[in-house]
Fold each of these.
Amino acid sequence: MEDEEEEARKRAIKAAFSERFESFQDSLLLLYIKNNLSGRNKFREKWPHAANYVFGPELVNYDDHGVTDRNHRSNLEEEAENRRIDILNVIDEATLKSVKSGSLEFEYIGGVLDHFGPDISRLIYAENIIERVRPGMLKDSGPADTGSSYSSDIPEDLNFTVADDIDDNLKPIETSVPKLAPENLPQEPQEAPKAPMQAEQPPAFEEDDGPGLFEPNAFESDPYAKPDQPEQASVEPQPFSDPDANIQDIKAPSQDAPKGPEEPVRPEEQPFMAEEKPSQPEAPPKGYYMDLFNKVAA
C-alpha cells in the first residue's frame, strides 16, 4: 500500500513540474553574479526571460551599455544574488509541498505563481498546472525560455526561392585546388633499401714457423727457464750376500745423478767480481843506476 502511494506521488510530481525544471535549477546553481559579466551574459543567452527577473533592468543596462557607477552596480549585483538564492530555496521547497498524497496543493502553488510571475513560474511548474491554478496567467506572456543557447528569429512561414539561371558574373569563382588523377600525382623518390651492416673481419696474418706476434704464448718463452731434466733412476738397497763381509768394505751405490746440460746463469745471479788493477814493475835496488852508469862510462 505504501509503495503504491509513493509511486502515485512520484507520478504526480513529475506531471506537476516543468520539463525544463532540472536544467533551470542546474543553471542557477552554476551562476556566479558578482564581478562576472561573462557569466551573466551566458545565463541571459540561455534564459533571457528568467535573466530579466534575476538581474533586473538596471544591471542588464550596465551590462549592455557599460557601467557609470561601480558602487551602484555592486549593489545591483548583490540584489540579483539574493533573488537567485530565493529561487533556489523555493525550488527545493516546491518539490516537497506542491504535491501531497498524489494531490496538488493549489494554495501553495498559487502563492509561488503570484510571487514569481509567469516567466519564472513556467520554468518551475507545467503550463497546464499553471492554467488550472491561475487561469489566464500565461495569456499575455511571451514565449517561454527553452534553455537553448541559440534561438532563431526567422519566421516559420518564410519561404526561400533559389533562381535556376544565375549570371556568369555573379557565379562564385572556383578557388579550390583541382584534383589530380592518381597517376599524375608527384611521387617522392624512393631510396634503395640499405643492406644490413656486417661486422668487419680482422685482417688475416700469414703463418710462420716461429711464434707470431698475435699467436698465443708468443711472449711466454723464458730464455732463463730451466730445461727439462730426466728423472733420476731410483736405486733400491740390495741385501748383503756375504754375512762375513766387513761393512766398511761395502760401498754404497753411487747416488750421483747424470749431469744434464749446464744451466745458463742469469745476469742477476752472477757473482760480483772486483776489477783487477794492472801490476806495476818493482823498483830497482838502490845504486842500480849508478853501477849502470859507471859500466857505460868505462
Amino acid sequence: MPFYFVSASDGTNVVKMFRDAIAAAYRYRKDPTDFIDQVLQELEGFSSEGETEDTSSTSGGSASVKPV
C-alpha cells in the first residue's frame, strides 16, 4: 500500500487513503498470497516431507527420534 500524506484538520486525502486501504484489503482477501505466505507454505512443505521420510525409513518396531 502506498504512503499517503493526509490532513486530519481539513480531510485532504483521508477519503482516498481509506478507499485504497479497503480496496487493498479486499484484493488480499480474495488472493491472500504474499511473500510471507509463500515462505510459510514452503516451510510447511519441508516439515511434512521430513516427517514422511523419517517414518518410512524406520524398520520394524524401532522407534525413531526426531530432532526438535
